[in-house]
Structure formats: C-alpha cells, structure tokens
Amino acid sequence: MRVPARLVPLTALTAVSALLTGCFSGSEPAADDSGPGGKRIRVAMLQPPRSGLSPLSDDAFKLSRWSTAETLVKLDKEGDAQPALATEWKQSGKSWTFTLRDGVTFHDGTKLTPEAVVASLTKAATASPKPRILDGVELTAKAEGDQVTVTTATVDPLVPQRLSSPQLSILAARAYKGKTVDPVGAGTGPFELTKVNGTSSATLDRYDDYWGEKAKAPGIDVKFVPDGTARAAALRSGEADIAEAIPVSQAAVLDQDLITEVPMPRTNTLYLNTAKGAFKNPALRAAAREAIDAKAIVEGVYEGRADVAEGLLGPALPWAAELRTPVKHATAGKANGQTITIGTYTDRSEMPEVAAALQQQLQKAGFKVKLDVREYTNIESDALAGRFDAFVLSRATVLDSGDPAAYLYSDFASDGSFNLSRFADPEADKALRKAADTPVGDARRKAIVQAEAAVLAQDAAVPMLHERVIQGDAAGVVNAAHDPRERELVTAETYIK
C-alpha cells in the first residue's frame, strides 16, 4: 500500500533536500544580470539520457525541450507544419523541396547549409535502428543549390510533419565525427549545450548569435532527477525553478499555484505478448482485458488525475472519440492458473503502482502474476526482445509527428521498431499502412481510427488510461512552456523574475 505523500517522514524529505543541495548551485556558470532574465533557469528533469543525448534516440526530446537543437519544420497547436529552419516547402510527387532560412549558424560558428541538412537527415535515415518517425519510410535527401530535396520511396503526405520530429534535428558536422552523435556545441537553437555530465546533469548557455529572438535567460542548468519525490522536493525547497513530471502523489502537497495539469496525448497501456506464452492465446488476452478495471487504477493510483481510456488515442485527440465505433473482441477464456510475468519501470513513479494493481486484478481472474520492475534503461532491451508476457508502458501517441499513425505503426506493425506485443497480423498491417499513406485530413483520421480498431480487436494491447502531465514552475518563472507533445519546456521567452 502506498504511503500518502503528506505522511512521508520529514527525515526523508530532509535527505532528499540535502541530496539536491548543490545540484543547481556552485557548479554552474555565474548569472548574467542583463535583460529581464538575469538568472539561470534550474530544471529538474524526469529521465536521464539513455543514449548520450543522441538525437537519434528519445534523448532528442530533451534537446528540443531545452531549445538547443532545431528541425526544418515545427508544429503549431493543431499539429500543422510551420516554418523553422526551413521557410517554405513544396511537394512534387514523392519529393518535397525545402528552402532554408538565411543567416542561421550552428553553435560552433559554422553556417547552416543544404549539405549540413543532408548530412543530418542521411545519418538519421541510415541509422540502425531508425528513429521511430522513419519506421517503414525510405527517405533520401539531396542538396540542390540553396535548397534541400527530400524524397521517399512512395508518396508520403506526412513528410513535413515527420521533419518536425526532434529525432530529425539538424546538427553541425562536428556532431557526427565520433562513433556516436554528440550534440554538444552543435545545435542552432537559442541555447547552446556546453557540457553534459553523464546521466547526472547538463549545462546550456545563451547563444547570442541565434537567428531568432535572443533568449531572455542567460542559461539553463539541468539536473536529472528520476525520483518523483525528489523532483517535487526540489521545487518546494527552491532548489529547482522548473520540475518536470510531478507525480500525482506529490501534486496534492504542493502549492497548487505552482503546478499546471496538462492533458497529454499519452496512454498508459498494457502490451500483451502475442508471439509466445499465455497471451499467444487470443482467449487469454481477452480474459486479461476483461479483468482490468481501469477506473480503479485511475482513482487509486492517479488520484483522479487521468482519464479512463476508451481506445489507444485519448482526449488530446478529440476526433478519435467522434469517429470510433465499438470493437468486436474475441471471447474470453479462463486463466486456470496460467503464470504470467509483467514488466514495467521505476522512472515514472506511478508505473510500479499500476503494475501492482494489475497483479491483483489479474490474480482475481485466475492468473498467477509475477512482477519485474527496474529502471527503464535496464529493462527496455528485455521488453523489446519479448521476454515478458506483458509490459506496462506510458506511451506518447503523437510524440514524433503530431500524427498518431507513426506511433501505431511503430508499436503494432509486424515490422514496427517498438513492437512490444510482438504483434503480426496481416489485416492490421494493411490498416496501419493505409493510415500512414492517406493524405492529411478527415480521410486520414478515419483510417487511423480503423487501424486502432484492428489492433484492439486482437487485444494486442489494453489501453488503460490517458495521462495528464503535472509540471511544477516556481513563482518567479515566466513563460515556461506547457506542451502536451513534450517538445518544449524552456524557450527563448522563458526567464526568472
């Protein structure tokens, strides 16, 4: 049983505070008192880097949230493509031609050129594994004068949206000289990444030659604090100005004026291993689905700060609910003492509690349930290798392109790079491909919902709830971003009073 946050011993909070003391002081550069943002911004981040801050991994979203790495295109609130490093683009069949912005320099002083853009895009397109946004996509880039032409193997209506993914950030040539991609001093954003201390901290300074509006804050000091109680304590004690992803267990004990709750396109899902073990049997997958009480998990674990899932796509995409029709599932069988192992991770403090709740619910349905809970970096490879009967994951559904087709393909296509369910179904593959190929608009939305139905009909995954992110901003923070796509956090407009 979870100890209520308000009953956490004072000695524990004191220890957390002592641990954080010095994380944001003493080691960072001195504050620059010029401009409205004379103070550096101290940020407590949820997850440490998984791949040395390589933009070809999920670490790309850290670079984006710190406004250090940029892409050719960015997305507006509606998910439509808008100019960034590219000012305009046009399509001709399989090819899209992008005109680059003038006067852009990388943080090492070199100029943004078509050749630099081609190098970055080619590195991503030929990486193994590819960035999720390029799952199922063959992409080539070519410099033509002062423009870049991007060509895909088939007509792709989502090329501009794909190029907005932080995993396709454009970096200077210096980033690609080693065996891994190193973003230090290689971005184009208003803040330059100057130092990375492993999985402990990172330092960014204002880049005064930025092509756009100069950053108001002199810099950002980042501390990676996986423990949710510690992040909340850092905000409460004044050790952090911005605390990412405050756990719901801590939200109630913080000053409510300091927290913002944002509905997220993020779904907490139980992925069922369809290739081997108990859940290779469709009837047992159906039995697991029927045994899960998502409402009890929302109320018990998330304290009501989440929405019960009706599908993989949640209220952040309201059109999904409008287009969705009832899904016909297989008939549930009986567990009869089948033993299953559920894996999850500790990086998000709610996940072990969700797994424990699922253990109780599934045991009532006749399953014998074991749990395997570790840090994400230590469990991801086993999950991708299919070593669990089920895996609980909090998954962003439009993280990459602003469009959920890429997420659905990545997670549920037979050749998807993040197929935790080991799901391979010809009809689902057909629906997923159709969703990916349909032009942007109402027809595409309908195809996406049909693809979702094809996955849910086979019980490859059981969506349980849609999360709301809780961000903590100290009283002096001005213009911190509250981005449901988790692409922005500190921008050029963010500063401390």
UniProtKB/TrEMBL annotation:
Leader sequence segment: 1-30
The record, for CDD domains, names: PBP2_NikA_DppA_OppA_like_3
Q: Which residues form the Solute-binding protein family domain?
A: 82-417
Q: Which UniProt keywords apply?
A: Signal
Tell me the InterPro entries matching this sequence: Peptide/Ni-bd, SBP_5, SBP_5_dom
Q: Gene3D superfamilies under this entry?
A: Dipeptide-binding Protein, Domain 3, Periplasmic binding protein-like II
Q: In its keyword annotation, does this UniProt entry include Cell membrane? A: no
- Enumerate the transmembrane spans: none
Under PROSITE patterns, the record lists: PROKAR_LIPOPROTEIN
Task: State the name under which the record lists this protein.
Answer: ABC transporter substrate-binding protein
